[in-house]
Write a structure and sequence with these properties.
With 162 residues, the protein is an all-alpha fold. The protein contains six helices and no strands. Helix 2 runs antiparallel to helix 3, helix 2 runs antiparallel to helix 6 and helix 3 packs parallel to helix 6.
């Protein structure tokens, strides 16, 4: 006994078929699971690499700042401190704000750039960075507390931008 009668036409035979159902997205096939795992692994790896390089860059910059402070404490040479701080800030600006092209800035333009990028420089700090960084120190010209304030300001700015 046949399950399908012989005298049915094409339309009746098609009517006996169950309708197709649309395949759902879940559960995914193994190939898609592998592709998603690779994509997620790549995103995590890139994020960790960027974070680790940023942390390493920050650590090196702050170590250089501490070395400048230690050298200043040993010899009390304000001119060397200000020159070193200016170089360190320029290196930080070149890494962090490369698109703004800070390499050619000097004097008033340099301190204005630093203030625009969040450095809280007072007038004495600006004067130290503009003039004393490139001039030899003369006795009695700069006070210890002004240099200390500049050192703290630079440290705060570097921690903020790096």
């Amino acid at each position: 006994m046949p399950l399908i009668p012989d005298d049915l036409g094409k339309e009746e035979l098609l009517a006996l078929l169950r309708p197709l159902y649309a395949n759902g997205i879940w559960p995914l096939a193994d190939g898609w699971k592998l592709l998603l795992a690779l994509a997620a692994g790549t995103v995590v790896s890139v994020a960790l690499y960027r974070r680790s390089s940023r942390v390493l860059r920050r650590r090196k910059a702050l170590a250089a700042l501490k070395a400048l402070e230690k050298r200043y404490r040993a010899d009390s040479d304000v001119s060397a401190l200000v020159g070193g701080l200016s170089v360190l800030m320029k290196r930080t600006a070149l890494v962090r704000f490369a698109r703004d092209n800070p390499a050619g800035l000097a004097g008033r333009e340099w301190t204005d750039f630093l203030k625009a990028k969040g450095a809280e420089l007072n007038e004495k700090d600006e004067e130290l960075l503009q003039f004393l960084a490139y001039a030899p120190m003369q006795s009695g010209e700069t006070q210890n507390e002004e240099a200390q304030h500049l050192l703290e300001t630079v440290g705060t700015w570097m921690r903020r931008v790096l």
